[in-house]
Every structure is written in C-alpha cells, then in structure tokens.
Amino acid sequence: MNSITDKDYVDAKLEATVARFTGELKAHELILGARIDALTQSTDSGFKSLREEFEARFAKFETRLIKWVVATVLGGVVLNTSITTALLLNRTPPAPAAPVAPIIVYAQPAPQATR
User: Fold this and answer.
1) pTM of the predicted structure, to 2 decimals
2) Burial letters for 4-38: b for 16+ Cβ neighbours within 10 Å, e otherwise?
3) Which residues in the chain land under pLDDT 50?
4) DSSP annotation string for 48-103
C-alpha cells in the first residue's frame, strides 16, 4: 500500500463523515430550534395568561382592601365621636363650691424684753 494513497483515502473518508455529521447536526438543530421556538411561544402565552389572571385578582383584592380600610377608619371616627358625646352629655355639672371663710392671720406683737 502506498502511504500517500492511504492518507488521501482516509482524508476523503474523514471529510465525508464530517460532512455527513454536519448535515445531520444542522437537521437536528433545525428540528430542535423549531421545538424550542414552539415551547418558548407556548410558555410565553402561558405566562401572559397567568399574569393577566394575577393582575385581575390583584385589582379585585386592592379594591376590597381600600373599601375595608375606609370602612374601618369611618367606624373608628363614629365610635370615638359617639363615646365622647355620650360621656359629655351624661356627666353631672359640678356643684357650686360653698363659700369658704377667709383665713385671717393675726400678727402678734413681739414680746418686750424685761430688764
């Protein structure tokens, strides 16, 4: 066998095999790329629907929360006003103070010294 001929034969076989694998790889890449694109689109549409559902539920929750807070604040104001009014209306007026006699302090003369 001639080594140059053998080398050319091996190189040709190797190039043919590489070309075949490259073609198969490109075909698989196209198929896989199409599958990935389809999966990405279905996932995106699924996430969009979940996001829309979440936004709708959150908007409902937000309105309910605002209503609850407003009702609680108004209830507290009404309760405080009612209690204050009831306490002020039911108290008895203070009795007039009895006149108090003034306190008189008599100054005593200083004692005289005896000699």
Assistant:
1) 0.43
2) eeeeeeeeeeeeeeeeeeeeeeeeeeeeeeeeeee
3) none
4) HHHHHHHHHHHHHHHHHHHHHHHHHHHHHHHHHHHHHHHHHHSSPPPPPPPP-PPP
